[in-house]
Amino acid sequence: MSSLLEIAKEIIKENFEAGDCGLYNCRNIAGDEMETLYSDHVLTIDICYGWAYFEVFGLSDEEFKELKSFYNNIKLGQGCIGCEYTSWCPDVFTEVSHHCGLYKEE
Q1: Which one of 38, 72, 78, 93 counts the least CB within 10 Å of its CB?
Q2: What is the count of structural domains for the chain?
Q3: 64 within a domain of the structure (yes/no)
Q4: Are 45 and 36 spatial neighbours (Cβ–Cβ below 8 Å)?
Q5: pTM (two decimals)
């Protein structure tokens, strides 16, 4: 794991409750107000407190995919979908746009 990915994971974990509605690697086009949580010559992590999401720049596609998996596992581990499991639930889940980002299909 790269040191940039380690830094990104730590920042996401520390600030998850304020950004639990999404993680993106592209700039929003809506003009949402962003605050920078971390920035160096390669990695930048911004947060939108108003809509509770992160924007992460400077990771490779593979690193971002791993960060997104880490982020989703935090969501599931917190039980935001009301599931008793702390990793992937054996039931079927589909991504949607609402608070936790996941819902259980009946």
Answers
A1: 78
A2: 1
A3: yes
A4: yes
A5: 0.72
